Amino acid sequence: GGGGRRGVGGRDTGMWRDVARDHRAALSLTLRRYMERLGELAAAVDAGDAARLEKLFAAAQATHRQLPPA
């Protein structure tokens, strides 16, 4: 069976190339948003901003809880 979130590591790389190419606009937007969030996290780490870190981790946890089970 193919269940779970194995991602790129468990699949044919050609398939993922095609998915990325076929859905490039949505994928690009998602990656840019992800990079923004990583930038926010890096800035909070660099600043030692405990309150901001707590807020970012709480938001990540809430998002993770919304994902369907693996």
What's the total count of β strands?
0
Q: Which ranges are low-confidence, i.e. pLDDT below 50, for 5 or more consecutive residues?
A: none
- The number of helical elements comes to 3
The gyration radius over C-alpha positions equals 16 Å
Coarse morphology: elongated
Helix content: over 70%
Largest beta-sheet characterization:
none
Alpha-beta content class: mainly alpha
Mean pLDDT: 90
The SSE string, one letter per element, is HHH
% residues in beta strands: under 5%
Distance between the termini: 13 Å
Keywords:
single chain; 70 residues; mainly alpha; 73% helix; elongated
Walkthrough of the structure:
The model has no long low-confidence stretch (mean pLDDT 90). With 70 residues, the chain is an all-alpha fold. 0% of the residues are buried. It starts with 12 loop residues before the first helix and ends with a helix. It is elongated and about 40 Å long. The chain is built from 3 helices and no strands. Helix 2 runs antiparallel to helix 3. The chain has helices at 13-22, 24-47, 50-66.
Explain briefly what this protein structure is.
This protein is an all-alpha fold and 70 residues long. It is built from 3 helices and no strands. The protein has helices at 13-22, 24-47, 50-66.
How would you summarize the topology of this molecule?
Layout: H1 13-22, H2 24-47, H3 50-66
